[in-house]
Amino acid sequence: MGGYALYVWLSYGLTLAVLGMVISALLFRHRQLKRDLEQRTRRQRRS
User: Fold this and answer.
1) pTM (whole model) above 0.85
2) Cα(45)–Cα(47) distance, integer angstroms
3) What is the per-residue pLDDT across 11-28, written as a single tens digit (0 to 9) for each?
4) Per-residue 3-state assignment (H helix, E strand, C coil) for the chain
5) Phi then psi dihedrals of residue 9, to 5 deg
6) Average pLDDT over the chain, rounded to whole?
């Protein structure tokens, strides 16, 4: 790779790490919103 292999692989690794963190954050937020919505629905049914 003309001496750029380290830079290229570090870039790939960093990109994958950031994408993994973004996906994890989205999944966490999705679960949290789903839980909140279920709690609100239960509260409204009781009222």
Assistant:
1) no
2) 6
3) 999 999 999 999 999 999
4) CCCCHHHHHHHHHHHHHHHHHHHHHHHHHHHHHHHHHHHHHHHHHHC
5) -70, -35
6) 96
